[in-house]
Amino acid sequence: MSAHQKIYRIFNVISRLRSPIGCSKERMAADFDVNVRTIERYFELLRDIGFNIEKKGPRFFINKLANENLKYENFIIFSLEEASLVKECLLNHSGQSVFKNSLLQKLYALTEIDEITDEFYLLNISKNISEIRNAIKEKKQIILKNYTSVNSESEKDRCVEPIRLIQYCRYLLAFEPESNSVKQFKIERIQRVENTGKNWTNEKNHQTLETDIFGMNGEKSYQIQLKLSLRAYSLLTEEFPGSERYIKRSKKNIYFTPTVNSFKGIGRFTLGLIDEIEVIESDEFKNYLSEKLKKVL
Fold first, then answer.
1. What domains are there in the chain, each with its CATH number?
2. Residue 255: in which H helix or E strand, if any?
3. More reliable by pLDDT, 273 or 70
């Protein structure tokens, strides 16, 4: 499940909890087809960002938000679809009324899910980065709660000693005692950061890994040259801010000539824009892409 899908699910949880009668964890787990522990993690996240979740019997509900000016009893309980329809009717109504403005404020709060989702998502990432920076400064071990690993296709807690943030705070470089190695962790895959209060015990092993602009590390480096369409260039520089220094332009063409530590990062980018990119160099990278394409054709 993508980060955006997870956040949208959390908003569904908020909607259930904001109901006057609330909802049980078991009911939500069954409706979302997850286990109860997953629902409990959602509750923990909501409490971390200011929601006051209360319990009466087996049911949980949000009595009010941390912001004293925003209480659930001040909202009309509509589904998102109903709220959106009523909002459109009011916007198209030419008359002026105190109640019209009041209703619109409430309906906007219910229906503008994209903007609110982005705010919560960015707030959580910012909080995690702040916790990591404090741990680096204090030389403390931290736990990356429910870290999603693409390589192992697993989600679990990872105890690490954070070394530094890299790639414009998109990645964390940290020593993992369990594997006895320095690894790279993507910030957006960390659900929450927990400071253990324990001091580093492996500082002598904190060697720094050199990463390329795609966040990849490795013992070998490869010189690549790609010819980009304007769209591919725009997407590249937006997604990877450091890539601009590897761009070379002629009157008609845009070339991207990075040195990378692995084909994985640049390979994902190239395959995602296969009609917008021409591979000039290297033959080794061309073979890598050919093998990947064979697996999906």
1. 3-114 (1.10.10.10), 125-205 (2.30.30), 222-296 (3.30.70)
2. strand 254-256
3. 273
